[in-house]
Amino acid sequence: MTQIQCPNCASPVCPDAPVVRMMTCAACGSTLYLEDAQARLAGEQGVMHDAPMLFGLGDRIRLGRVQLRLLGHARFSYGRGFWDEFWALDAKDAPCWVSVDEGDIVLQRSLTARDWPRYDGYLDLGSTVAHDGLNFTATETDDAECVALRGSFDHAL
After folding, report:
1. Are 31 and 6 in contact (CB under 8 A)?
2. How many whole angstroms separate alpha carbon 130 and alpha carbon 135?
3. Count H helices, E strands: the chain?
């Protein structure tokens, strides 16, 4: 990996993988965008208040048959609570997200347009979507804000 300097404190920062485009500086807490082997400031990483967690940044976990390396941790607030998302790479360095909310753990991967589930209209509460032989029902909707970051990500949040 290429080592670069934090534009805020000049500490060395080294992306965990070639696909990393956003990360936090461990020394000063600045959030950095990585572009063309340079880093530019993107703001503060936010305050990640301690909370009980099943796993954390830097852990290696297994979900089903998938082995993952957790490289980024983002916390989202929806007013009355929060949930955590972890950006990860699998054994083949393919990116994915692990969502943890109220004890539920969900592995999320990007789908190509041809693999998108088909449904009519907008997904309202109670709407059902069929995908890969399974039916999924929308049980809640809300708006959220990313309030804190740690680690590395493959795009800006």
Report:
1. no
2. 4
3. 0, 13
Closest C-alpha among 35, 18, 37, 151 to residue 97: 151
Q: How far is CA 94 from CA 39, 87, 89, 134, 145, in A?
A: 23, 11, 5, 24, 26
- CA–chain centroid gap for 106, Å, is 12
Distance CA 21, CA 125 (A): 34
Q: From the CB of residue 77, how many other CB atoms can be counted at a distance below 10 Å?
A: 15
102 torsion bin: left (phi>0), alpha (psi -120 to 50), beta (else) = left
Cβ-contact 157, 83 below 8 angstroms: no
pLDDT tens per residue across span 38-94? 555 455 555 566 777 889 889 999 999 999 999 999 999 888 888 999 999 999 999
